[in-house]
Design brief:
Length: 371
C-alpha cells in the first residue's frame, strides 16, 4: 500500500513539474551526415533521429550540381535504412564563395537550371527535402541577393506542391556583411538551422570557445537565437548547431583565452579512423584523459591545456556533456525547435546519445525510473 501511495504521489508531482516536457513539443534531434564519414550512419539510432542532412552536394555558377559525392548511387543502403526507420533524409546543397553566388544569381538562366536540378533531386522517393547551406559572409551583390530570394520563393512553392510535399530549410550564417535572408524569405522555411559555432576558429588571435552559450563573444547561442528572432524565425522552427569538433592552439601562456602563436588545428570529440580524416588526428577525449579539463562558466564551454615536450603551452576548447546539458536547458527554456549535430560520427554517438536521452522523457514511467 505504501509503495502504491508513493508511486501515485510521485506520478502526480512529476505530471505537474514536467507537464511542459511531457505534453509539449519534443525537441528535434537532427544531424549532418558527411560524405567523408560514409559508414557513420550505420551506428546511428536512426529511429531516434528526427532528420538527417546528407552533406554535401556542391552547386556551381551555372546552377548545376558540380559534385554529388556519390549521391545517389553510392548511398543506396542509407536511403533504404532511413526509409525503413522513417527517418527524414534531406540533401544539403552548398555554395561557399561570393563570386560563384553572384555569377549564379545575376544570370538569367542559371537560377532556372538550379531550380530544375533541385526538383530532380527532390523527385527521389527516398528524399524528404532540401537544405541550402549557402555561406556568403561578404561580397554578395544586391542583385544576386534579390534574385536568390525570388529563387527561394519558387523553390518553396514547387517543393511544397509535390506529392508528398518535400521540405525546405536553410543554414543561417551569422556575423555576415551579406544578408542573404530577410523575414519573408525565412518565413518560407520549414526549418532554419542557425550557425551557433565557430565563435573561435583555427586562425583566431586568441584561444577560446567554439560554441559558447553565453558571454561577451560576438557569437554565442544566445546571440544567434536573438538574431534569428529579429528576422521573424518562429521559435519552434529554429534549430541551433552543436559542433562535435573543437580547436587546439599553441598559445602564449596558461591563461584562459591566451594569445595564439600559430594556426590552430581541428580536433574531434572521439578518435576517428585515420583513413577518413588523415589531417584531423587529435581526440578531445584522449587529451582530457591525459591532461584533464576545465569548465568555463562564463561561456558554458570547456577547455584543456598542457605544455608539450618543447615546453610550448597548448590550449584546446571544445563542447562536452556539461556544455551540452547547459545548451539543452537553454533550448528548452527558449522553446526552440531543437539541436543539430555537426559532424555525425565525430563523437561516436556519445554526445548525440546523451542529447537523445535528455531531450524528452519517453513516458511517465521513464520519468519515474530516473528519480
Amino acid at each position: 500500500m505504501t509503495t502504491r501511495f508513493y508511486r501515485a504521489c510521485l506520478i502526480f508531482c512529476l505530471m505537474i513539474l514536467s507537464q511542459s516536457t511531457v505534453m509539449g513539443q519534443p525537441l528535434k534531434a537532427m544531424g549532418y551526415l558527411a560524405w567523408w564519414m560514409p559508414q557513420s550512419w550505420q551506428n546511428l539510432p536512426l529511429q531516434e533521429m528526427d532528420r538527417l542532412f546528407f552533406f554535401e552536394l556542391k552547386v556551381d555558377s551555372s546552377g548545376a550540381i558540380a559534385e554529388r559525392h556519390g549521391w545517389p548511387e553510392q548511398w543506396v543502403e542509407l536511403q533504404q535504412a532511413t526509409q525503413r526507420q522513417k527517418t527524414p533524409l534531406d540533401l544539403t546543397l552548398t555554395l561557399f564563395d561570393a563570386e560563384t553566388f553572384n555569377q549564379l544569381f545575376s544570370s538569367d538562366q542559371a537560377p532556372n537550371k538550379l531550380l530544375a536540378e533541385c526538383l530532380e533531386l527532390a523527385a527521389n522517393p527516398y528524399v524528404n527535402g532540401l537544405h541550402l547551406d549557402f555561406e556568403i559572409y561578404g561580397g554578395a551583390s544586391s542583385k544576386a541577393i534579390t534574385n536568390y530570394r525570388l529563387f527561394l520563393t519558387q523553390l518553396s512553392q514547387q517543393l511544397h506542391g509535390l506529392s508528398p510535399a518535400r521540405g525546405l530549410s536553410v543554414f543561417l550564417p551569422v556575423q555576415t556583411e551579406s544578408a542573404l535572408y530577410d523575414a519573408p524569405s525565412l518565413s518560407l522555411m520549414d526549418w532554419v538551422v542557425s550557425q551557433s559555432y565557430d565563435s573561435h576558429y583555427r586562425s583566431s588571435k586568441h584561444a577560446g570557445p567554439v560554441a559558447p552559450l553565453t558571454g561577451s563573444d560576438e557569437l554565442t547561442w544566445e546571440k544567434a537565437a536573438a538574431d534569428a528572432f529579429a528576422l521573424g524565425v518562429p521559435r519552434n522552427r529554429l534549430i541551433l548547431t552543436f559542433p562535435l569538433y573543437g580547436y587546439e592552439w599553441m598559445v602564449l601562456d596558461n591563461k584562459p583565452r591566451s594569445p595564439t602563436q600559430k594556426m590552430g588545428v581541428t580536433t574531434t570529440f572521439s578518435e576517428v579512423d585515420k583513413e577518413l580524416l588523415p589531417d584531423v588526428q587529435i581526440s578531445i577525449t584522449q587529451r582530457v584523459k591525459q591532461f584533464g579539463a576545465t569548465q568555463d562558466p562564463s561561456s558554458g564551454s570547456s577547455y584543456y591545456q598542457f605544455q608539450n615536450q618543447q615546453g610550448q603551452h597548448v590550449q584546446g576548447w571544445f563542447e562536452d556533456w556539461w556544455s551540452l546539458s547547459r545548451k539543452i536547458d537553454f533550448v528548452k527554456a527558449e522553446k526552440l525547435g531543437g539541436i543539430t549535430f555537426f559532424v555525425l560520427g565525430y563523437d561516436k554517438e556519445q554526445l548525440l546519445g546523451y542529447y537523445l536521452y535528455q531531450k524528452k522523457p519517453k513516458s511517465l514511467d521513464d520519468l519515474i525510473d530516473r528519480q
